[in-house]
């Protein structure tokens, strides 16, 4: 046999072996899967499997309990342990994860606990018997579902194995495997919409970050006194738009793209967008009447300017999560908001000139500026502007990357997660191709 062919085959077998070893350690290893009505498992936006060990105190575990009461000495948490190359669902007992597998009890000191790190998940225990279908939203691992059943007013957690007949609930009671065909399944219900209100900018933790502070031109005009035989006041109307942009940095545990209503005092009214997207709009068009006292045969040019401010700030708010059954759950929301607007509107005039020869003209004029529509409250009137200091200069890229409230630092930290092996996997694939 050709030696080159043997070498190639050995190369591919090595690649296949390494790929198989590295595959379980990709980014999705901590993801929780839920049953989908479309047949494919979906990844929960809120829940995670989090590593725990035998020396972890139960009071330190922020996990989902079997009986709904956390922190007690006898609290039992939903867990999973690696057995026979697969993750098997069980529950914690004496700081061990106990699983029932083919009639035997296995205890593991190293395991993962089901957690709700952001507390945004809505979890309900739903009644199940062998005559019921598995409900959508049930938490699953390889055709097994998180379950529990009650014996003598005590809940015992385990798993529903749907491959055993019409399904059986398996758990461990006093070191012995117990089976039943009636119990409860843990189901996650995702919201259909969000509403965010009661925004308050966090004070005392960090300065507001002014990213952009620049002058922008809104409108310009010319006033001239060509017809009058004496000095007179000349007026005109200038108009302008006040654009705004609002971006709420993603908060882990919220569903990206979900229909979201935001009520912010600095906006013209409630706005609807998709969570994770920037909101952009304009206030109602504004007009100003400007006047200038001009001598006969003179003119003056004017410009209407404002300051474009782009800033980041940490905030707290109330989040109303709305569900298909009409239920609403209120959460305290913390995040970082980036805003952009135009403020400090002002009119500037050039020195009057003679129309005939464009030379400077003497002036003792008085000027007036009047807003013809209802004045929009200046953004600088709001509390978060009062937190600024005179030394609030624009923050450079290095400073923002170090600051925990910077949008760049905030979003960058999420990309790390548990992806430490992904780079190795990519390099391996490149190696195999070459």
Task: Provide structural commentary.
The chain is mainly beta and 434 residues long. 12% of the residues lie in helices and 48% in strands. It has helices at residues 3-22, 383-386, 397-402, 407-414, 422-433; strands at 31-34, 42-52, 78-83, 86-93, 96-101, 104-108, 111-115, 122-129, 139-141, 144-151, 154-161, 168-173, 176-180, 182-189, 193-201, 209-225, 232-240, 243-248, 259-262, 271-274, 279-282, 286-294, 298-322, 328-349, 353-354, 367-371. The strands form 3 sheets. Strands 1, 2, 3, 4, 5, 6, 7, 8, 9, 10, 11, 12, 13 and 14 form a 14-stranded antiparallel beta sheet that branches. A hairpin with a 2-residue loop joins strand 3 and strand 4. The protein is rod-shaped.
In DSSP terms (H or I, runs of 4 or more residues), the helix count works out at 5
Average pLDDT: 78
As a percent range, the share of helical residues equals 10-25%
Backbone CA Rg? 33 Å
Distance between the termini: 23 Å
Total strand segments: 26
The geometry reads as rod-shaped
Class by alpha and beta content: mainly beta
Major pleated sheet: 14 strands, antiparallel
| Fraction of residues in β-strands | over 45%
Low-confidence runs: 10-28, 370-423
